[in-house]
TrEMBL record, chain A:
CDD domains: TM_PBP2. Belongs to the binding-protein-dependent transport system permease family. It is a multi-pass membrane protein. Pfam families: BPD_transp_1. GO terms for biological process: transmembrane transport. Keywords: Cell membrane, Membrane, Transmembrane, Transmembrane helix, Transport. PROSITE patterns: ABC_TM1. It comes from Halanaerobium saccharolyticum. The lineage of its organism: Bacteria, Bacillati, Bacillota, Clostridia, Halanaerobiales. The chain crosses the membrane at residues 20-39, 84-105, 117-138, 167-193, 214-234, 279-298. This is Carbohydrate ABC transporter membrane protein 1 (CUT1 family). InterPro entries: ABC_transporter_permease (IPR051393), MetI-like (IPR000515), MetI-like_sf (IPR035906).
UniProtKB/TrEMBL annotation, chain B:
PROSITE patterns: ABC_TM1. It comes from Halanaerobium saccharolyticum. This is Raffinose/stachyose/melibiose transport system permease protein. Residues 66-257 form the ABC transmembrane type-1 domain. Keywords: Cell membrane, Membrane, Transmembrane, Transmembrane helix, Transport. GO terms for biological process: transmembrane transport.
Length: 302, 272
């Protein structure tokens, strides 16, 4: 027996001891990574948010000053409202188109496998790659979009898609939608395939037409998936970073700023680590409260 | 029926162009010369296929970025799969009275937005002397994929009947033997799901490389891609070559393992 087991031998049988030792040893690796890089940063960020800290110079305690400054910071509110714009437009664009494509894929019409490959490709690309690709699609001079508009005689609609302050955020959201719609397509097609065909047959015997079937059977059957998709798009939009960062860097003049890009720039470009930590903690609080609300609402329903 | 299938094909064609054409543009432009790109119509296909672009771009450092990405992704995946499956095994198969609590602590991690932790991940990495080291990326990669991986794996392991390991216990097998000889082989479907999901996620990760890696010889693919565009942005065919190169592994993986990738990517994201 180990001599340094603090007398646990008396309380636990040898079998239990062996078990607990394995449990402890087995969980330690997971907890090391998890605590070090995911959990500990949150309280420490809170701590650093109480300081003015430029990364190089010493920490100066400023109390809750950063917290107040963030609330008065126009760029922070601009970024937050862009994040919410992203939520709303994601719900309006990605989910309906995803559903439409999901229906198409799940019908298994001839050639659906090829279409599925094409539709799914954007989702496996990295955000950086899509961001770079789209910065050439949106380019004012040799971009695909302006060239297309010229080809179909709509020159008047040509624009500096990423350089124009009113358009930049919509262009970024367009690229984000291009990348994430395929995900919702797959989500919906999986749900649609699992609806038993016998229900449709029964409806057909009762004389239900295509659209009637869609609204009286399909939609109610996949309602949980639609709710799930909405939650995912809500929480996912707070994580948006790579695409906006590579396409516009949040510009021009913060017009397409998102919380994550603003946090990154404050902390790592301007080296305002204390202020950056505060933005990070606000981002955490927003994401956390949304998650908790969603969790509460879905739990209560059950 | 006839009319509706024509309608489907029209819609499918329109969306094939929307989702597919950017890839056609990417690959087609990657094979053009820069002058050709600037002077000819952007819709035209290359006059001659300039495969030399691929050689030029690779030699500018891309093969190095590839190697770096493969290295970091492989190390992270091996550790991640081991650590998360071991934890999931303990959580679901060994009763130690706090199983639910332990699972809950990991699942709670899914609510933490990655960007809230960046400054401290940077600080902690410097403190551990792991900044500007490739291996230093593995820690954050593993940590951030742990909650989803444990969630998926423990959900699956839960469903394996308890009787399976009882006879092994009788024969005197240890917990670790049961984990490696019985539970891991039975969990193959879930393991392949998290492997694919995590591969795509880690391979595509950008922000940790951005904050932790400064030396060009240690750039991972996403970082190299971004820097490359910053430097050669005026040479569009080069940028498209770099994009194509960087996307090839994922596209090949996807075409080879279609069903698995689709399933893995959705299962992972649904839980995340």
């Amino acid at each position: 027996m180990d001599s340094n087991d603090f007398g646990l031998t008396e309380f636990f049988s040898e079998k239990t001891q062996k078990k607990l030792r394995f449990v402890l040893l087995g969980l330690i690796p997971a907890y090391i990574f998890y605590l070090l890089y995911l959990i500990v940063p949150i309280p420490l960020s809170f701590y650093y948010s109480l300081f003015s800290w430029s990364g190089i110079k010493d920490l100066v305690f400023v109390g809750l000053e950063n917290w107040q400054l963030v609330l008065q910071d126009k760029i922070f509110w601009k970024a937050l409202s862009n994040n919410f714009l992203l939520v709303i437009l994601s719900l309006l664009i990605q989910i309906p188109i995803g559903l439409l494509l999901g229906i198409f894929i799940s019908r298994k019409i001839k050639g659906y496998k090829i279409f599925r490959v094409i539709f799914f490709l954007p989702y496996i690309m990295s955000a950086v790659a899509v961001g770079i690709l789209f910065s050439y699609i949106y380019d004012p001079n040799f971009g695909l979009l302006n060239n297309l508009l010229q080809m179909i005689g709509l020159e008047s609609l040509q624009a500096a898609w990423l350089g124009n302050r009113d358009l930049a955020i919509y262009s970024v959201i367009g690229a984000i939608s291009w990348r994430f719609t395929p995900f919702y397509m797959i989500l919906f097609s999986a749900a649609l395939v699992s609806i038993p065909q016998s229900i449709y047959e029964a409806a057909r015997i009762d004389g239900a037409k295509g659209w009637q079937q869609f609204f009286s059977i399909t939609l109610p059957m996949i309602k949980p998936t639609i709710v799930n998709a909405c939650i995912l798009s809500l929480t996912g939009s707070l994580k948006a970073f790579g695409l906006a960062f590579t396409m516009t860097g949040g510009g021009p003049n913060h017009a397409s700023e998102l919380l994550a890009t603003y946090m990154y720039k404050t902390a790592f470009t301007d080296m305002e680590m204390g202020y950056g930590s505060t933005i990070g903690i606000y981002l955490f609080l927003i994401a956390f409260s949304i998650s908790m609300t969603v969790l509460f609402l879905t739990k209560r329903k059950k | 029926m006839k009319k509706s299938s024509i309608f489907y094909y029209i819609i499918a064609t329109i969306f094939s162009i929307i989702f597919g054409y950017p890839f056609v543009f990417m690959v087609s432009t990657s094979l053009k010369g820069n002058m050709e790109f600037l002077q000819e119509s952007i819709w035209a296909f290359p006059e001659t296929y300039k495969f030399i672009n691929y050689l030029d771009v690779s030699n500018s450092g891309f093969y190095k970025y590839f190697y770096n990405s493969i290295f970091v992704t492989a190390v992270s995946l091996v550790v991640l799969v081991f650590v998360s499956s071991l934890a999931s095994y303990i959580i679901t198969r060994i009763d130690f009275k706090m199983n639910k609590f332990v699972l809950a602590t990991f699942v709670a991690g899914m609510m933490i937005p990655i960007h809230s932790t960046l400054i401290l991940v940077y600080k902690i990495s410097r403190f551990l002397n792991l900044n500007n080291k490739l291996i230093g990326l593995a820690g954050p990669y593993i940590a951030f994929m742990l909650p989803v991986s444990i969630f998926i794996l423990s959900g699956f392991m839960e469903s394996i009947p308890k009787e399976i390991e009882e006879s092994a216990f009788m024969d005197g097998a240890s917990y670790f033997q049961i984990y490696t000889k019985i539970i891991l082989p039975l969990s193959k479907p879930a393991l392949s799901t998290i492997l694919i999901y995590n591969f795509v996620q880690i391979w595509n990760r950008f922000v940790y490389g951005l904050i932790l890696i400064s030396s060009p010889e240690k750039w991972i693919l996403t970082l190299g891609l971004w820097r490359f565009q910053g430097e050669h942005g005026f040479n569009v065919p080069y940028v498209m070559t770099a994009l194509t190169l960087a996307s090839i592994p994922l596209i090949i993986l996807f075409i080879l393992l279609q069903e698995k990738v689709v399933q893995g990517m959705t299962a992972g994201a649904l839980k995340a």
